[in-house]
Write a structure and sequence with these properties.
The complex is a heterodimer of chains A (340) and B (616). In chain A, strand 5, helix 6 and strand 6 form a beta-alpha-beta unit. The termini of chain A are far apart. Chain A has 340 residues and is an alpha/beta fold. Chain A has an eight-stranded mixed β-sheet with strand order 2-1-3-4-6-5-11-7, sandwiched between helices. A three-stranded antiparallel β-sheet of chain A has the order 8-9-10. Chain A is 29% helix and 19% strand. Chain B has three domains: 219 residues, Pyruvate-ferredoxin oxidoreductase, PFOR, domain III (Pyruvate-ferredoxin Oxidoreductase, domain 3, 3-Layer(aba) Sandwich), CATH 3.40.920.10; 182 residues, 3-Layer(aba) Sandwich (Rossmann fold), CATH 3.40.50; 108 residues, Rossmann fold, CATH 3.40.50. Chain B has a seven-stranded mixed β-sheet with strand order 11-10-12-13-15-14-21. A six-stranded mixed β-sheet of chain B has the order 3-4-2-5-6-7, with helices on both faces. Chain B is globular, with a radius of gyration of 26 Å. Classes of the chains: A alpha/beta (340), B alpha/beta (616). At the A-B interface, strand 1, strand 2, helix 2, helix 4 and helix 10 of A face helix 1, strand 9, helix 10, helix 12 and helix 14 of B. Strand 2 of chain A pairs parallel with strand 17 of chain B, so a sheet runs across the interface. The complex binds thiamine diphosphate, iron/sulfur cluster (SF4) and magnesium ion (MG). The site of iron/sulfur cluster (SF4) has 11 residues of chain A, from loops.
Chain lengths: 340, 616
């Protein structure tokens, strides 16, 4: 297909199904952002396959006018891996929730990342089980009061980005549902990246966990509380664009440019391509109130080949050398004998 | 080679090679059976090994055995009792002598009969022959270890490498006894130890030394010959059930013109399917060794959604893990082959032993009304046919299909008549016409009820499917009560409709009469032999063997109605009998069951048959 002839609008990616998420749910905005990103990617629409698990967020494929598969709880990663490995021509998106990917599907999540299959994994993190109506999840903050933790949870949460780095992940980005611009941008970056790209979306569940991210997204303070990183750019943020991140011993700290002798030159330049995950890990872990929360592409380390491509290469290389070309060849190879 | 003048021709012989796990008994047995196959004998083999990789040396628990039954007429089973037992140590003697025919020959490495070894094997005295009452056996005590060392003393090999080849000495003796040539083994050594000519030479020397020793001591005489069996003409090779299964899947992919994808996780005794297919990159097979069984089947479902022939292979515990995902394949109506190589259960059970106790799990082990087609292989070589057939049904009916085999079939081997691919039927997957711009995911074929398969990448056929109930035809999510009933009915009807495309049940032996032996899966050989024996004894007995479990063949009731007694024989507590009670309620079913991790013996089938038929 001639790439230049493909002109899509977000509407081309909308299915005829009525979107059934609760009014005000963060999922709506993410759906719109992904449809916009896909329209801008110049990939033929029939090449998209959107695979999900179970949860509110996992209803996503039904609302997309692409090939789609609504799987079973936790298994989106395994199903998506199968689709991509079977047909690497496809652009495969995995839609998953914090319960789907971090609890029941944790095993598949770490292994798809470790293998580095060329998938775009969109993790809708609302820090709650939405579909089952409000039980705590592995990302709920310690002390969260939910239907199954009326007195507060006593277990510490996962940070999805830490799992990604721990599983030797090559791409991790974070966004928040109400920042459409950053969301569209990171979705496109994730799609272009060859390898498992994980995008964590902080997503507000208006019904069971409303306002969990309010502190971060609060209109008045958000410029001071959000740092949007971009590869090659200095990590500067703040209402007055005067705050920045500097290295402080083995750690990081926030400084104000022009105070305590700090100038713009001291501010760290974001290197998303650094294979060493050390700084990326600190960026993933930054949290209020000492730090802003980091959004954008935190890590993007391009490997030469993805798992799915290596499988294809290996087959091609074995086939080019083998004398066995079909089943007749195979069955008649080795020790055989004739009975007359 | 010296020609022996006092050759005695035998119809059939069973040999058991038995030794410590580290003694190389599987290789010894394989070399013997391959050599016999090349001579044109029919045969069946049964490897029996401990679950532990390094079971305690010298103990009965650590004994590894390989039994081969070969003959110049049709061989159905590996044999109940061995005519010749090769025991490499006292533990092997202890474990296997009770499975040796009274009066048979036992070769034992006399060097191994030390006090320590005898104790480890659990003998109380220093005379195992007396203690196990083996007086009426033809016992050959051969100093196998000493003679092996003597043979190789000038090769420069270290003591450990030298003693490792003592199994070849024993093999040489048996080769002489049965007038087998050594050239196949020589070729094998040359290939296997290509990089190490000293080892090739050493193995050859020891094999020859054993052969010559047997000739010299003459204690073995008379020596035997088993002539070639009158098996159908064609080109043959030996094949184990697992490799045969793997090949059946590739053959089906070739005849369906689709790439094959396997998602799987290692588990005894199914692992060899995964291993064999991993090596078949030459034929374009994609194998995904998943992080667990759930991922194994889910990647396969993904591959099926992507338009490939997809399969997953496992054993009972893995099948349990796959249950939820199988339901997903049922409701999305995607083609998928699930191979379950049964082993002793429950739980980890007896990993290396055989059993048929996963039948109910295969039939009903899922939530909801979740019918799948089930076929069962009944010999190592027809694992190929039923893997092919499972794939055909999956692709033509758009449904998951379970193929049941078991440890006995998986590890056993027999001559496999190599088919010509051109002679196998073409498989017609039910693809949507790519030009159809009105694609409806659940539009159905009138006859098979199969829905249409549109492959991602095809412009204009973008669609969504998944685990929520779907509206028939359109495939949109539907909670409409009547529609759910319609879909449940269709999914069941689709499976039962396969009756039109599978063969009717046939009977071997008497077509009507006193009793019908009923079996399914791997018990076929034993039931065939038992039937043969009972016919000789004058019973009017037939043998009906099921390879299609769901659906059952159309003519079951008609066949059952021709016999006074129905006897269902299976290696479980009666799961198939109970299933028949549900499906064909008008009959009374007698049962012969065994759950010991072992196949039936022909003898016990004959005895129990007589009890049932004579008793009233
Ligand atoms: C095997 C299985 N266990 C449990 C459930 C019930 N269940 C459905 S969704 C869900 C949690 C969903 O939470 P999350 O993945 O965070 O998605 P969200 O609804 O928040 O988007 C659970 C426990 C199920 N469907 N299947
Ligand atoms: S319950 Fe929460 S997550 Fe689910 S749709 Fe409603 S708002 Fe969204
Ligand atoms: Mg959630």
């Amino acid at each position: 297909m001639d790439i230049k002839t493909i002109q899509y609008t977000p509407k081309d990616f909308k299915s005829d199904q009525e979107v059934r998420w609760c009014p005000g749910c963060g999922d709506h905005a993410v759906l719109n952002a992904i449809q916009r990103a896909m329209a801008e990617l110049s990939i033929p629409k029939e090449k998209f396959a959107v695979i999900s698990g179970i949860g509110c967020s996992s209803r996503f494929p039904y609302y997309m006018n692409t090939y789609g598969f609504h799987g079973i709880h936790g298994r989106a990663g395994a199903i998506a891996s199968g689709v991509k490995v079977a047909n690497p021509e496809l652009c495969v998106w995995q839609i998953t929730g914090d319960g789907d990917a971090m609890a029941i599907g944790g095993n598949h999540f770490i292994h798809e990342i470790r293998r580095n299959i060329d998938l775009n994994v969109i993790l809708f993190n609302n820090e709650i089980y939405g579909l089952t109506k409000g039980q705590y999840s592995p990302t709920s903050k310690e002390g969260s009061k939910t239907k199954t933790s009326p007195f507060g949870t006593v277990e510490p949460p996962f940070k999805p980005g830490m799992l990604v780095l721990g599983a030797m992940g090559k791409f991790f980005a974070r966004t928040i549902d109400n920042n459409i611009k950053v969301t569209v941008e990171v979705m496109k970056e994730a799609a272009k990246f060859r390898g498992t790209s994980v995008v964590e979306v902080l997503q507000n569940c208006v019904i069971y966990n409303d306002q969990v991210f309010a502190e971060i997204s609060d209109k008045q303070h958000k410029l001071d509380r959000q740092l949007v990183v971009e590869h090659g750019k200095k990590m500067i943020f703040g209402t007055n664009n005067d705050k920045g991140i500097v290295q402080d011993g083995l750690g990081l700290k926030v400084v104000t440019i022009g105070q305590d002798g700090y100038t713009e030159d001291d501010i760290l330049v974001h290197n998303a391509h650094d294979p060493n995950p050390y700084i990326h890990m600190m960026l993933v872990n930054m949290q209020l109130p000492e730090f802003p929360v980091v959004f954008g592409v935190i890590r993007a380390v391009q490997e030469e080949h993805t798992y799915d491509a290596k499988v294809e290469h290996q087959i091609a290389s074995v086939q080019s050398k083998s004398v066995i070309k079909n089943m007749d060849d195979l069955m008649n190879s080795g020790d055989t004998w004739e009975v007359k | 080679m010296t020609k022996k003048d006092n050759l005695i021709e035998l119809e059939k012989v069973v040999i058991k090679f038995s030794g410590d796990s580290g003694d190389g008994m599987q290789l010894t047995g394989t070399l013997f059976s391959d050599t016999s196959a090349l001579l044109g004998n029919d045969l069946a083999t049964f490897p029996d090994y401990p679950a532990e990789i390094r079971a305690p040396q010298g103990t009965v628990g650590g004994v590894s055995g390989f039994q081969v039954h070969f003959g110049h007429s049709k061989v159905n089973t590996p044999g109940d009792y061995a005519d010749v037992l090769v025991a490499m140590n006292p533990a092997a003697l202890k474990a296997s002598s009770k499975w040796t025919r009274r009066g048979g020959t036992i070769i034992i490495d006399s060097d191994s009969l030390t006090e320590k070894n005898l104790q480890k094997a659990g003998y109380l005295t220093n005379d195992p022959i007396e203690e196990d009452k083996l007086g009426d056996f033809n016992i050959i005590q051969a100093p196998i270890s000493t003679l092996t060392r003597e043979t190789l003393k000038d090769t420069g090999l270290d003591a450990k490498s030298i003693i490792r080849s003592k199994n070849m000495f024993a093999l040489g003796m048996v080769f002489w006894m049965f007038d087998r040539p050594m050239d196949h083994s020589f070729e094998f050594f040359e290939k296997k130890f290509k990089k190490n000519p000293v080892i090739v030479e050493a193995n050859k020397m020891v094999l020859k030394a054993g052969y010559n020793y047997a000739e010299t001591i003459e204690a073995l005489t008379p020596s035997f010959r088993v002539n070639p069996a009158p098996i159908p003409p064609g080109r043959y090779r030996t094949l184990s059930g697992n490799v045969s299964t793997a090949w059946g899947l590739i053959a089906a992919a070739e005849k369906a013109n689709l790439p094959l994808f396997l998602g799987s996780y290692p588990i005894t005794p199914a692992t060899e399917i995964l291993q064999e297919l991993s090596g078949r990159k030459d034929l374009g097979v994609k194998v995904f060794q998943a992080e667990d069984e759930i991922a194994g089947i889910c990647t396969a479902i993904g591959a099926s959604f992507a338009g490939r022939l997809a399969a997953t292979s496992t054993s009972g515990p893995g099948l349990a893990l796959k249950a939820e995902a199988m339901g997903l394949a049922v409701i999305t109506e995607l083609p998928l082959v699930i191979v379950n190589v049964q082993r002793g259960g429950p739980s980890t059970g007896l990993p290396t032993k055989t059993e048929q106790a996963d039948l109910m799990q295969a039939l009903y082990g899922r939530n909801g009304e979740s019918p799948v087609a089930i076929v069962a292989a009944s010999s190592p070589s027809n694992c190929f046919d039923y893997a092919f057939e499972a794939s055909r049904l999956a692709l033509e009916y758009m449904t998951p299909v379970i193929l049941l085999t078991d440890g006995y079939l998986a590890n056993g081997s027999e001559p496999f008549r190599i088919p010509k691919m051109a002679e196998l039927p073409t498989i017609h997957p039910r693809f949507a016409d790519p030009s159809n711009q009105d694609y409806q995911p659940y539009a159905r074929d009138e006859k098979t009820l199969a829905r249409e398969w549109a492959v991602p990448g095809t412009p204009g056929q973008e669609h969504r499917i998944g685990g929520l109930e779907k509206m028939n035809i359109t495939g949109t999510v539907s909670y409409v009560p009547e529609n759910h009933q319609v879909m449940v009915d269709i999914r069941e009807k689709k499976i039962q409709g396969m009756q039109d495309s599978i063969p009717e049940l046939s009977v071997a032996g008497e077509q009507e009469g006193d009793a019908l032996f009923i079996g399914w899966g791997s018990t076929m050989g034993h039931l065939a032999s038992a039937t043969h024996e009972l016919l000789n004894r004058g019973y009017k007995v037939g043998h009906a063997h099921f390879n299609y479990i769901n659906p059952l063949p159309k003519n079951v009731a008609e066949v059952f109605g021709r016999y006074k007694k129905l006897i269902v024989c299976e290696l479980n507590m009666g799961q198939f009998a109970d299933y028949l009670r549900i499906k064909h309620q008008d009959f009374k079913y007698h049962q012969i069951n065994k759950v010991q991790g072992l196949p039936f013996t022909v003898q016990e089938l004959v005895d129990k048959f007589e009890q049932i038929v004579e008793g009233n």
